[in-house]
Amino acid sequence: MGATDVHWPRADYSRVPYEVFLDPSYHALEQERIFRGSTWLYLGLEAELPRPGDYKATVAGDTPVVVARADDGSLHAFVNRCAHRGTLLVRAQFGNTKDFTCVYHHWCYDQRGNLIGVPFLRGLKGKGGMPRDFKMDEHGLRTLVVESFAGVIFATFDPSVEPLESYLDAPMCDYLKRMFRKPITILGYSRQRIPANWKLYYENGQDAYHAGLLHQMSATFGLFRSTEVGGIAIDKHARHKVIHSIHGSDDAKESKREYNKVGYMEGSLRLNDPSVFDYRDEIGDRRATNLMRLFPNSIFQQLSNSLATRQVRPRSHKEFEIFWTYFGYADDDADLQLRRLKQANIVGAAGFSSMEDSEACRLVQVGIRGSERAQSVVEMGGLGPIVEQNTTVTEVLVRGFWRYYCNIMGIPVSGAQLQTEAAAE
Ligand code: FES
Ligand SMILES: [Fe+2]
Known about the structure:
Layout: E1 15-17, H1 19-22, H2 25-35, E2 41-45, E3 54-60, E4 63-69, E5 75-79, E6 94-96, E7 99-101, E8 108-110, E9 115-117, E10 143-149, E11 152-156, H3 164-168, H4 170-179, E12 184-194, H5 198-206, H6 211-214, H7 216-220, E13 230-234, E14 241-246, H8 252-261, E15 287-294, E16 298-303, E17 306-316, E18 319-329, H9 334-343, H10 354-367, E19 375-377, H11 396-409, H12 421-424
Antiparallel strand pairs: 1-19, 2-11, 3-4, 3-6, 4-5, 5-10, 7-8, 8-9, 10-11, 12-18, 13-14, 14-15, 15-16, 16-17, 17-18
Helix pairs in contact: 5-11
The structure holds FE2/S2 (inorganic) cluster and fe (ii) ion.
């Protein structure tokens, strides 16, 4: 078994073989074909690197990388691995520098990753030194192509990948423009390791169905209910997704009736401090939930008034990390600042909502042990074409995720030919 000979039993992706979460051989292949392949990866926000010389150490998949702003203001990204013998070059998370010097033998690189200094290049007292034909310009750091959209920094290892705006596609570009419509300020960071396969987190995000059920606190106290009016937009490959819901747009009686069937919202629970969810409409469209998930490594969220990005960092087939960047707008008034900080508790490692998602992922990883040959059932929303549906009670986009995953990984479906998107629809 393994990625190249997995049995993917249905061409509509409504059965997901559990070995994709359990078999360690997938991790290396995913790094090669997805994270170092033809995708754009989210690395950070320009607001994190405002000044010339600023840098941030991050990852692209499991590859350590650095994104840096050069003295002329341009952005650069390179693998955080010394070209000499492989030492992690930059050890701080953030900093400001003219150049980067490796701790091991002090090879030195400029802000673009070019090698600019090698101690004892010509040896010492006529002895040692590098060969005469050693060329510094052949030993720079491995660079990535970097682009920024609406102040959000993306990078790719593949110079032939489609342009960033085309990769993101129109609904996602619109979402980024909406979220980053004015200057932001970074409020803080958190990170969490989750003992589960990263793809379970992607399934979770593609699945709006769970949101009104698993997240009982959100439903009970009005952050998000499946009965609310909302919308879902996807890109041309159904690999990215935006979901929003309109605050208080459901009928109180109907939502009570539907939710009483699943055993909560009975009305006896009250928050001591309602401001942890209380939504202040900032631009007049009542969208209290706005979530965007980009393939393969990022989520951009507005939940009530909390704003954050999440970078997904796969570590192995059974562990990934989420790196959260919380932010607000530079012109926030004191009330909004306080709300954003307080409502940051909705997400993060112990967040009211997020801990339920990470626990759900962990429970799947535990529950499927020993069941490599069994499969999950993904039929909510029907087995029809993978298109936007005007409801959150659907798993159709989970199938969309797997279709794109199989295509980019080169995994044949039904043991036959590669499933094309046209054929699937
Ligand atoms: S490994 Fe970096 S200078 Fe030797
Ligand atoms: Fe969730």
